[in-house]
Amino acid sequence: MPRINQRTETITLTEAGELLAYDTNTTYSVGNEPPYVKMYLDTILYLKDLPKGYNPILLSILKRLPWANQEQGIAINASVKRMMAKEIGCSVTRIDHALTDFVKGELLYRIDKGLYNVNPMLFGRGEWADIAKLRLEITFDGKGKTIMGEIERKKQNGD
């Protein structure tokens, strides 16, 4: 954590002419760099074979992304779609098409009607430790157990 040290020296004479010296040290903590998101939306859309024109819609969705340590889920109901359309300058139909394509391209996962999660392998907001937890998902359903995660290979000497 960056710190700024300030040293102030005050010298005061009493009425009797005695010299008094006061030293003050003050340390200010600037704080850590806040969490941030670095995005290359053009590349993600290109790799998923989606139109570049979807960039503003994807960015508008990501602005609503919760912090990784919070309850996940982005509500995109009719009201939110109208707000997004006005904000971006497009039609609600265009947003509907983009949402369908984002789900097909696995940028988003549809959790329920009007409720989406982002793919944590592509997007995250917050501290890395919290985002990493989202990358491991275990689902139990009638078809059995599905485990999705990332495998890290241990580096060998010389790698």
Question: Please, could you describe this protein's structure?
Answer:
The chain has 159 residues and is of the alpha+beta class. The protein has a domain of 90 residues: Arc Repressor Mutant, subunit A (Orthogonal Bundle), CATH 1.10.10. It has 5 helices and 7 strands, in the order ββααβααββαββ. The strands form 3 sheets. Strands 3-5-4 form a 3-stranded antiparallel beta sheet. A two-stranded antiparallel ribbon has the order 1-2. Strands 6-7 form a two-stranded antiparallel sheet. A hairpin with a 2-residue loop joins strand 6 and strand 7. Helix 2 packs across helix 3. It is elongated. The mean pLDDT is 76.
From the structure above, extract its key features.
3-stranded antiparallel β-sheet; two-stranded antiparallel sheet; alpha+beta; 5 helices; Arc Repressor Mutant, subunit A
Give me the Rg, rounded: 26 Å
CATH homologous superfamily placement of the domain at 41-130 = Winged helix-like DNA-binding domain superfamily/Winged helix DNA-binding domain
Overall shape: elongated
Please give the largest β-sheet.
Answer: 3 strands, antiparallel
CATH class of the domain at 41-130: Mainly Alpha
Give the strand order of the largest sheet, numbering strands 1, 2, ... along the chain: 3-5-4
Element pattern in H and E: EEHHEHHEEHEE
Structural class based on helices, strands and sheet pairing: alpha+beta
Helix count equals 5
Specify the CATH architecture of the domain at 41-130: Orthogonal Bundle
User: Which whole number gives the mean pLDDT?
Assistant: 76
Task: Bin the helical content.
Answer: 25-40%
Report the sheet-strand fraction: 25-35%
Number of strands: 7
The N- and C-terminal alpha carbons lie at a distance of 33 Å
CATH fold category name of the domain at 41-130: Arc Repressor Mutant, subunit A
Low-confidence stretches: none
